[in-house]
């Protein structure tokens, strides 16, 4: 369980549910509970893809973690590197197969997510474009949910840019978790965050759903900015870690805001129910 970071898995599921809301599936294609099977398959797909990604993250970082994070599963001896490779491969396979049961578009997006995750784990995290690479994984994950209705996917492909920017900002500050961060990077992150929740707000206005989306947007803003402001005052490693954790957990609030902005506030509340469970899991298992 520690290796796949359970709290993070729930944020990936929330991405899918947000994408489903954007697609309009619940309004156009849902007639009975059996029709929800594709949604369940996409949730299973993202669990496999995200789980495989974080497992291979620890596989590629095993040598560095021996020095910087010896408590992690591989350097602590909880699991061998070979066992982790096998587990990560099975999770990826599960994710891809589950996505292809929904449709070709979903399957191809799943393959792209796997490729993006592996590229980030092997090379991206050490290079300047790494945060954008990590953001791409989340952007594609949102599209995976939207892929339930392919015409909508074609119309709203550009929405992937929003989580790309958001996660790129979170990933950029996460590089200061061990030795402390840069105030300049934190300020850039604050601007990126403002762009993200501002854009969701504009979409909510355009769809005539600002009022239902507003509580979720406010929650998101508080969750990401409270620890970020503390980190700006003292950019030490622990404060940076809290800012990163806040940014990751706030993904669920952001996904709920997506759902409300596209006209499904009861569904947004359902997504938000994942937040307290994710917070509880974050206390028991590492998030970063």
Automatic annotation (TrEMBL):
Statement: the UniProt record of this protein carries the keyword Membrane: yes
UniProt cross-references to CDD domains, sorted A to Z: PT_UbiA_1
UniProt entry keywords in alphabetical sequence: Cell membrane, Membrane, Transferase, Transmembrane, Transmembrane helix
Source taxon at top rank: Bacteria
Annotated membrane topology: Multi-pass membrane protein
Pfam families: UbiA (PF01040)
GO cellular component, one term: membrane
Residues spanning the membrane: 7-30, 36-57, 130-149, 155-174, 186-206, 212-231, 267-286
GO terms for MF: transferase activity, transferring alkyl or aryl (other than methyl) groups
Gene3D superfamilies xrefs: UbiA prenyltransferase (1.10.357.140)
Localization per Swiss-Prot or TrEMBL: Membrane
PANTHER family per UniProt: CHLOROPHYLL SYNTHASE (PTHR42723), CHLOROPHYLL SYNTHASE, CHLOROPLASTIC (PTHR42723:SF1)
Protein name: 4-hydroxybenzoate polyprenyltransferase
Species this protein is from: Chitinophaga rupis
Lineage: Bacteria, Pseudomonadati, Bacteroidota, Chitinophagia, Chitinophagales
């Amino acid at each position: 369980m520690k290796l796949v970071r359970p709290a993070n898995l729930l944020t990936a599921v929330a991405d899918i549910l947000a994408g489903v809301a954007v697609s309009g599936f619940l309004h156009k294609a849902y007639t009975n509970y059996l029709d929800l099977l594709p949604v369940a398959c996409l949730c299973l797909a993202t669990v496999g893809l995200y789980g495989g990604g974080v497992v291979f993250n620890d596989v590629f970082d095993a040598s560095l973690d021996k020095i910087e994070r010896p408590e992690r599963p591989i350097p602590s001896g909880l699991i061998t590197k070979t066992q982790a490779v096998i587990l990560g491969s099975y999770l990826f396979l599960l994710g891809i197969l589950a996505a292809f049961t929904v449709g070709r578009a979903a399957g191809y997006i799943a393959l792209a997510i796997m490729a993006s995750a592996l590229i980030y784990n092997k090379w991206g995290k050490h290079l300047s474009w790494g945060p954008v690479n990590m953001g791409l994984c989340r952007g594609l994950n949102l599209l995976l949910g939207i892929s339930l209705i392919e015409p909508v996917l074609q119309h709203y492909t550009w929405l992937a840019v929003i989580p790309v920017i958001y996660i790129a900002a979170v990933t950029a500050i996460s590089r200061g978790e061990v030795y402390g961060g840069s105030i300049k990077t934190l300020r850039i992150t604050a601007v990126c965050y403002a762009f993200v929740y501002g854009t969701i707000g504009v979409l909510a206005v355009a769809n005539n759903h600002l009022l239902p989306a507003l509580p979720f947007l406010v929650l998101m803003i508080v969750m990401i900015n409270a620890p970020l402001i503390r980190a700006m005052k003292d950019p030490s490693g622990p404060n940076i870690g809290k800012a990163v954790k806040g940014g990751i957990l706030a993904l669920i609030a952001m996904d709920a805001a997506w759902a409300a902005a596209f006209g499904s506030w009861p569904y947004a509340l359902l997504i938000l129910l994942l937040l307290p469970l994710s917070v509880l899991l974050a206390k028991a298992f590492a998030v970063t």
